[in-house]
């Protein structure tokens, strides 16, 4: 695939000029964020942006309407910007429930290890901003997110390398997972031409070193709930992935957290659920069933105020994503109902309906 335009993935130094002002994306490798860092992010949102922190489908956060100076300095002091040259390529997923509930291997710490090694390699600063690393603890949750290169556990101490979500047959011990993923990233940087993603290469397998490989196989995908009580941990589902500065400060009261690729926040040490509810934070998994892009007026390309329209929808046990245009920003990777704004209404799974009939259209299909 030939790319004719520049990679415009936003960061802190290279913001995106959205309709509601500059948008800055802050990477959180593995979704990990400390209580102190949450306090800093809340302050940045309140003092420099629109007052909210927005979760992304890669376990990162975004600040919108950042019109005041000083963001990079505040994030740098908090350890959220360890390498200005690498800030847009620090895209790393890790199974958020690893070491808490389920999974074959404990992948905690691997995202941070990779992040430090990545930032220490000047040559990898030129990776496209869309390039994605992942560590899956064997359950198949982040392996399903289509990372460019992923280590997926098959035993507690070994795993297989996935390229663009596909098993390569190359088995690597956990101890060598970080170096193996970085080697693939370097090979991609050397061979990519104008490609942004590994899946755009004709033969992704050329990125792997020579060596024995097993027959590739398809493995089960399972995304376990990250909202509600999960052992000692508590998961929160902010409506449409949006947290006010004050809500983020409430989350910080419970200690360090994990931002998941499904726009939820996991509090491993537990939390006072009543306090969360008082702050307007939901621990009901159904809250996460309905997602939406930012929509109008925040996005100039959106054909509708999708969040206002989606706010009246009632969860029905299936995933629904409402998009303001055909780009379908923020859509989940798994099976979901596809709702796209078009001509004064929406296309629901390909069939047009007026905005006023959106809830009925979804309900009819659910009952069919």
Automatic annotation (TrEMBL):
Pfam families: NIR_SIR_ferr. Keywords: 4Fe-4S, Heme, Iron, Iron-sulfur, Metal-binding, Oxidoreductase. Residues 24-68 form the Nitrite/Sulfite reductase ferredoxin-like domain. Signal peptide: none annotated. Gene3D superfamilies: 3.90.480.20. The keyword Metal-binding applies. The keyword Iron-sulfur applies. InterPro entries: NIR_SIR_4Fe-4S, NiRdtase/SiRdtase_haem-b_fer, Nit/Sulf_reduc_fer-like_dom_sf, NO2/SO3_Rdtase_4Fe4S_sf. PANTHER family: BLR3264 PROTEIN, FERREDOXIN--NITRITE REDUCTASE, CHLOROPLASTIC. This is Nitrite/sulfite reductase. The lineage of its organism: Bacteria, Bacillati, Actinomycetota, Actinomycetes, Pseudonocardiales.
